[in-house]
Amino acid sequence: MNDQAQDAQGAHPAVGAPAAGHPGTYATHPIDPSAERGWGTITHVVPLVATVASAGTLGFVGSLVIYLLYKDRGPFVRANAANSLNIQIMTGIVLLVSFPLMLLLVGFLTYPLALVYAVVMHVIGAIKANNGEWWTPPLTPQFVR
Known about the structure:
Helix content: 55-70%
Number of strands: 0
Largest sheet: none
Number of helices: 4
Structural class: mainly alpha
């Protein structure tokens, strides 16, 4: 670690410790562009796996955790984390609407379609993030930016 990252006593600040001179803010360490591409890909892969493994119920948690942890690490990873979270929010809304629609038998069609949509959007997002391309998923409102 370089000398600039040390405080006045020569100690290294703890990760997540308040930044010197900025009360209430926390020190976040920006990541390099290649790591941003990797984390951009991970922001789509983790919710994809969680969505498939839990039939759509845990993908939101993966997206939210990654968004909260990495949103301030770089613009590319923030955009991908926000896209991932927006996909999961939209999927969650459709899944919640699908439950009462199951009484009319329509929900048995909309529920799997929402899961397929989420899987396809996360696969496309992961590929685009891995290639370093900026992307906004179609048919997805921007709840989180």
